[in-house]
Design a protein that fits this description.
With 388 residues, the protein is mainly beta. The chain has no helices and 28 strands. Strands 17, 22, 23, 24, 25, 26, 27 and 28 form an 8-stranded mixed β-sheet that branches. A 4-stranded antiparallel β-sheet has the order 1-21-20-19, with no helix packed on it. A 4-stranded antiparallel β-sheet has the order 2-3-4-5, with no helix packed on it. Strand 7 and strand 8 form a beta hairpin. It is globular and about 65 Å long. The protein starts with a strand and ends with a strand.
Length: 388
């Protein structure tokens, strides 16, 4: 089932008449209350975006009478393109909400109390230069207390980078460690979200040859890893999410994905429709920016690698991380030089087998779950895993 959540022209709230984006559901477990976090704007150019929260019920109705503007467009500083992606979560132990915003070229971290009053903020990353948002998920592991993972597109948007956010529950101590690329395919990755349960999976909007569409980087179940540091050893392949959804061309273009089972316990994917982005607006002379927030109820098959048919990745360098290729019947590796393909069944096993790769197309049937490319010289490679 697909249904609208916020259609700006029908909104009773004037500050979001221009458009809405980056939807996120946050659960306040102490008060058993759900909040809908999103960006909105009234300016016709769509660049002065602001952060809002509003109560949302289990029927996915947004209560505009309780809406709160938590991030004005000129806060924490005046920029040309403000609060273009916001993400967050609730900390029950400290009764605080934590919100991240890609604001201008930077990433900011904000702490709010239970009434959404600002307690403080901190510049988290300088010059990320992305409008992707900066989603964060606490590890929840006793051996990694106070830490969280985060993702964002890399410098040229050809891939996605993994970050560790240290001391995520302490505004004075919070800091970010860059753990490098975790997956790469196209030079157009943008607004994104990810999950750690039921598996480590990244949902992302990608600009294809003609439309913005939804893609997914498929990672391992976390029980396939042994310690948190194992995440830094792995790389994900990407598949197209669009054939698994019930969307059609009436939405024109889609992006800003957010997967959740909140607030009604059913798996769903919130997304944004860019319905007027193919035309020039009469009032601004620019392309349209009227984004709408929708949701589609989905099934857990979106977490099954076999649902995607083909998973893809690109690599450049001498030695890759370990690619996760579960249920792969065939592996196709195109490489521009001589290399070795190393294989193992478990992330902490020793290399169990290896295959010499020649320049050109190489086909490997029924590879193991983990593969790595290695070469004495820098190579460029395209990897495709056929899964069915």
């Amino acid at each position: 089932m697909i249904r609208p959540i916020i259609l700006p022209p029908k909104s009773p709230f004037s500050d979001i008449k221009g458009g809405v984006g980056t939807p996120y559901v946050i659960y306040d477990s102490k008060r058993d209350k759900h909040w809908f976090l999103f960006t909105g704007w009234s300016d016709l150019k769509g660049l002065k975006r602001e952060g809002f929260v509003a109560p949302i019920d289990r029927s996915l109705n947004v209560d505009f009478s309780g809406i709160k503007k938590i991030l004005p467009s000129d806060f924490p500083m005046q920029v040309d393109y403000s609060n273009n992606g916001i993400r967050g979560f609730y900390n029950e132990a400290r009764d605080e909400f934590y919100i991240t915003s890609t604001h201008g070229n930077d990433v900011y971290f904000f702490a709010f109390d239970q009434e959404w009053k600002l307690k403080g903020y901190k510049l988290l990353i300088k010059d990320l230069k992305k409008d992707s948002g900066f989603p964060i998920r606490p590890t929840g592991a006793y051996r990694n207390m106070h830490d969280a993972f985060a993702v964002a597109p890399n410098a040229d948007s050809s891939g996605v980078k993994l970050y560790m956010v240290r001391s995520v529950d302490d505004l004075e101590k919070v800091r970010v460690e860059d753990l490098g690329d975790i997956g790469a395919w196209a030079r157009s990755n943008d607004v994104l979200d990810f999950t750690l349960i039921p598996r480590f999976q990244i949902f992302i909007e990608m600009n294809t040859v003609s439309k913005w569409m939804l893609q997914s980087f498929i990672g391992p179940n976390l029980d396939e890893l042994y310690v948190t540091e194992d995440v830094n050893k792995v790389s994900f392949l990407q598949g197209s999410l669009m054939p698994l959804l019930g969307l059609d061309d009436s939405f024109v273009q889609v992006g800003h994905p957010h997967y959740t089972t909140e607030p009604d316990g059913k798996p769903k994917l919130f997304f944004v429709s860019f319905r007027d982005t193919y035309t020039t607006r009469i009032d601004t002379g620019k392309e349209g920016y009227t984004h709408e927030i929708w949701v589609e109820y989905v099934d857990t098959f979106i977490f099954d690698p076999r649902s995607y048919g083909e998973l893809r990745g690109k690599f450049k360098g001498r030695e890759s991380k370990w690619y996760y290729v579960p249920n792969a019947n065939r592996l196709i590796v195109s490489v521009n030089g001589e290399a070795e393909l190393q294989l193992k069944a478990d992330i902490n096993d020793e290399v169990s087998d290896s295959v010499v790769l020649k320049r050109g197309i190489n086909i490997i049937d029924k590879p193991t779950t983990w593969i790595r490319l290695s070469s004495s010289t820098e190579i460029g490679a395209t990897i495709k895993a056929l899964v069915y």
